[in-house]
Structures are given as structure tokens and as C-alpha cells.
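[09:14] KT: can someone run the structure on this one? pasting the chain below
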Amino acid sequence: MNFFEDVREYLRVNHEAVVQSLLDHIWLALLPVGIAFVLSLPIGWAVSRFGWIRHPVLTLSSIIYTIPSLALLLLLPGILHTSILDPLNVVVALSLYSLALLVRTVVDGLESIDDQIVQAATAMGYRPARRWFTVDLPLALPVILSGLRVATVANISMVSVAALIGIGGLGQLFTRGFQLGFYGPPIAIGLVLCVALALLADTIIVLFQRLVTPWTRAGSSR
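[09:31] RB: done, C-alpha cells below
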């Protein structure tokens, strides 16, 4: 049999396991991004609002992002008092990585807003909470969503590392291929699905950005 026939045969025999691995990969990758996105907005606002916390917060986020993912996954069970096979370890680890990236992006997005726009909104009587939701956040969204795209694709890639400690996801196809000496089909299938998932997630975020920030489309079409 040629390579493509091998892949087709592998999918025929193992399609349920492949689908389950894909579903596990999706929620393990995207749930941390959602958690980090929600947390990064108030933290990023606080950093941009109170200058004295800027350096410690951004320094801490840089330190977190430099910790090797496998080391963090092995360290968290002792901190969280969980089993090493508990998916919670993956969710917490990837939430920290995503938060470290998104906090800086939120700060950059808020600081990219023209001061004259902020002053005009304040002069028109916008209170801080209303201005945040109707002026500041919408104008910062292009930068924030760019960071969200990076965090999402990075998470989809990093979830594969969790397979090294026995947690589900498409990375299990890689480890299974190495363990069985059956390198072709499972590794190729896992790789293609990871890339396809990353492209799909990135496309959805881009389309969402175009939907909620129509002024950026108008500006680029001139």
C-alpha cells in the first residue's frame, strides 16, 4: 500500500480515537484562551491605568512565558494537588501562557488609542465605565484580537506537549506513532489536523474582527 492508502486504512480502523483526540485537543486549547481573554481585559486596563504596576505585571508575564511548557505541566500537579493525568494541569498552564501574552497585548491596544479621542469622549460626558465599553475597548480590539490570534494558534500547538504525560489531544497520535514505530499515518494525521484546526481558529477570529471593527475595513479600502 502507498502512503495515502495507509492513512485511509488507519482512519478506517481508528477513526473514533482520532475524533476523540481532536475533540480533546479543541477544548484543551480553546478553554484556556477564553479564560485568559476574560482575565486579561481588567488586568490590562489596570496596568494601563495605574503606571506603578506596569513594570511588575509585565515582567511577571514575560517570566511566565519563558517557562518551558513540559516543566510547568510537571510542576503544577504538586502546586494544585492534582494527579499528573488531570487535564486541569493543562488548562491552568495554557491559561497562564495565554494570559501572559494577552495582558501585554491589551495594554498595547489601550495605549494605541489617540488621547484626543479619549479626551473628546470624556468631554462629552462619558463616565469611565461607559467610555471603556463604548470607546476604549472597541478601538483597542484590532490590537487585542491580533494577540488573541497568536495565543490561540500557540495553544493549539502546545497542547500536543501534554501527550508526553498521558493527557489527551492530537499529540497522542504523535506519541502513538513513535511508540509503535508506525511513524507515517498517525503522525501525518495529527499534524494535518493541528494545522487545520489552527487555520480554522485563526480564520474565525479574523472574521469576528472584521465584523466588530468595520471601520478598520473601511480605512484599509481607501
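[09:33] KT: thanks! The mean pLDDT is 89.
[09:34] RB: yep, looked fine to me
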